[in-house]
């Protein structure tokens, strides 16, 4: 039997016609090449080359062997090419989902990291409502979903991503514009956009209003954060938004005010229990967690939320 190393050396001598040429091609010493050729010929009982004036010519009895060696080397090249493609993400597709609040800024930044690591990887991103995430995972449409809320489901696992806070957003020129902080009581003095007590973030503010016995007037309901920001920018009211939607200046033309009351919340990655994750999904989760934790209140402070570079 010949090892792949012996195949590689014999072929290098065959291609270059000299021991020195083979050594240079393989970036090894010439004596090592010579010893391996002699050992291979001796162990197999076959003379591969005729030596004439320092050059090596294939012997007639070795012609068939060289043909097979070329075939083996071609398969090794094909294998190397496939491994290289896989290493760059080729031949694979990453399918992930995200709720809108995380998909606006955080997911694209995480995907940019993944793309740098796997430049040929196919990527499919789905923006999902909370109630759509279960079917997305259970039916195998994707590997993971970035969630703003942890559901109770026996077939799903939830891995922590990062913590965040809510902010009050106002249009430029508003009475509250320029303030660093605002209380829940002050927020209720103005028409509110988009507060839905049934949404994870809405429940936080609804709880604060209820505990403080504050009445609030919702003039426009809008489920997605980008729409809420657009309505505020148009001067139609003020709103409460999660920090990840507006991180890194993700929606210019509005001002962010810290809320005096505690509004901290946790985010998660949901996966199907027992389903193995691909290397690409693991890389995405790692990148997303890093991006989101970089702007956590205890780490990034409000400066990162307002769009300053880390």
TrEMBL record:
Q: Does the keyword Secreted apply?
A: no
Molecular function via GO: DNA-binding transcription factor activity; sequence-specific DNA binding
**Database matches in Gene3D superfamilies:** 3.40.190.290, Winged helix-like DNA-binding domain superfamily/Winged helix DNA-binding domain
Q: Which terms are listed as keywords in the entry?
A: DNA-binding, Transcription, Transcription regulation
Record's CDD domains?
PBP2_LysR_opines_like
| Cited InterPro entries | LysR_HTH_N (IPR000847), LysR_subst-bd (IPR005119), NocR_PBP2 (IPR037424), WH-like_DNA-bd_sf (IPR036388), WH_DNA-bd_sf (IPR036390)
Residue limits of the HTH lysR-type domain?
A: 2-59
Give one GO biological process term.
Answer: positive regulation of gene expression
Family as reported in the entry's similarity comment: Belongs to the LysR transcriptional regulatory family.
Q: What does this protein do?
A: NodD regulates the expression of the nodABCFE genes which encode other nodulation proteins. NodD is also a negative regulator of its own expression. Binds flavonoids as inducers.
Q: What is this protein called?
A: LysR family transcriptional regulator
**Where is the organism placed in the taxonomic lineage, from the top?**
Bacteria, Pseudomonadati, Pseudomonadota, Alphaproteobacteria, Hyphomicrobiales
